[in-house]
Write a structure and sequence with these properties.
single chain
Length: 453
């Protein structure tokens, strides 16, 4: 890849080609948990936080009526920092001259102006639409005056709160290398390889520790065993209106094959299975050119999500309030040479595989130098996605609406997308996986109510 193309597809600040593309899509801006006083005590008194999204500095706050506002951070009067605004319940007041703004950005008071002044009616701070869904606050940073597309009608946003859980983490790298790890099915057999398998019964909420669907001679196999023993995947990519469907086969015998179906939702979301009854929808939102928040929404098709357990498992690895990982370049991501020889392929722990992905992405540098890489046959999804990305950037530069969920008609259509991780009959794996996901969908306690709505 030429250096100028690498710049074109990675830089996301306002005015850049990729930045203009990103502003056609809804982006996660915060977790609802970040406004929970039990996790963030300061929110009890002042529910306001600063956020950085697509290279823009913003303030996010909740008013006394429970509405959220997302505003540009510099006050429109003389540019003072609204991060220090007085939160007055019905709006934010700048301490510099007392100008006050509601959640829509409308100026509602300019107290130093003469009595009868109508100045405030003509002042509006730039604000951005915010929607709360499945424990995530989603924002749209598109141009003013343009109607945003609907929030995508995917399972993760359609399921009730009882059946979803959201979490996030910060990585010190560009968004593109963070996203590409999720559409690389080959890496799981190496980066996440464990030399021993744990009890399937203790696998709740943990990636690759549960059993794949199906059996081998009556025995359920943990995903770790499959990834370890069958490390030459056959990967195929099907272009879809929303992005791509990835099918990965790992032939196990003449009678059985392991099949894993995942999805790339353009521009930076992937959907993968966590277990037989739960999926992960993970978004990789650019903070700026060299930092990325991943947001994961876990969606259950069976029992309600045990949010306390899921949260406790993941909070061990990060520092609040900004969800910064304990591991990083500063401590070699927790690398242990003895562990690498005896327990794991990587040597960076067994409890949290996000650290594995974090190392892979951050160790490339703040922005990966793609002029030096050499893609192989298992990088078929990476190559296909980059073609989509380049075409979408070009479409925006030509004044067109890019592919996928930026298109209102597509975003409003109900979809899963469906995933699977299972051991299937080798001669009939296609119908097997479709039957599995159909049964899972039909059995979801919340799906019937959704269909009749």
């Amino acid at each position: 890849m030429k250096a100028d193309l690498n710049e074109r597809i990675t830089r996301i600040s306002a005015g850049t080609p990729c930045g203009q593309l990103m502003r056609h899509y809804w982006q996660p801006v915060a977790l609802l948990d970040e406004f929970d006083p039990t996790l963030a005590p300061s929110m009890a008194e002042r529910p306001l936080k600063t956020v950085r999204l697509l290279g823009q500095d913003l303030v996010l706050f909740r008013n006394a009526q429970g509405q959220y506002g997302l505003l540009d951070r510099p006050c429109p009067h003389r540019g003072a920092d609204l991060a220090f605004a007085r939160h007055e319940g019905d709006g934010l007041r700048c301490p510099f001259h007392g100008w006050k703004f509601d959640v829509s950005g409308q100026c509602v008071d300019t107290p130093a102006e003469p009595i009868g002044s109508r100045l405030c009616s003509r002042i509006r701070q730039r604000s951005y639409p915010v929607i709360e869904r499945s424990g995530v606050l989603m924002a749209w940073l598109g141009p003013e005056g343009i109607e945003p597309p609907p929030l995508p009608a995917m399972d993760c946003f359609a399921a009730p709160q009882s059946h979803t859980f959201a979490f996030k983490g910060l990585w010190s790298c560009n968004w593109l290398q963070a996203f590409e790890v999720g559409i690389d099915p080959a890496h799981t057999s190496f980066l996440h390889r464990f030399y021993s398998d744990e009890s399937i019964e203790a696998s709740y909420g943990r990636q690759f520790r549960g059993a794949s669907a199906g059996e081998v001679e009556g025995e359920r196999w943990p995903m770790t065993r499959i990834m370890r023993e069958f490390d030459r995947p056959q990967i195929s990519v099907q272009t879809m209106p929303y992005g791509m469907q990835l099918t990965t086969l790992r032939p196990m015998s003449q009678a059985l094959t392991h099949v894993r179906v995942t999805h790339s939702i353009f521009p930076h979301t992937f959907v993968i299975p966590l277990s037989e009854s739960m999926t992960i929808t993970q978004m990789h939102v650019p903070v700026d050119d060299t930092h990325t928040y991943w947001y994961a929404i876990f969606t259950s098709f069976g029992e309600p999500v045990d949010k306390a357990t899921m949260r406790e498992q993941r909070l061990r690895a990060v520092s609040l309030p900004d969800y910064v990982p304990h591991s990083g370049r500063h401590n070699q991501w927790g690398f242990d040479a003895q562990e690498q020889r005896t327990r794991t392929f990587l040597g960076m722990g067994e409890d949290d595989i996000n650290v594995h992905d974090q190392w892979a992405c951050e160790s490339m540098g703040p922005i990966q130098d793609r002029t030096r890489e050499h893609l192989g046959s298992t990088d078929v999804a990476i190559a296909a996605y980059r073609r989509q990305l380049i075409e979408a950037i070009d479409a925006v530069q030509a004044g067109q609406t890019p592919l996928g969920m930026a298109q209102a008609q597509l975003a409003g259509q109900r979809m899963g997308p469906d995933t699977v991780d299972g051991i299937a009959p080798a001669h009939d794996w296609q119908s097997w996986w479709q039957s599995r996901v159909r049964d899972r969908r039909d059995g979801a306690p919340w799906m019937a109510a959704l269909a009749s709505a």
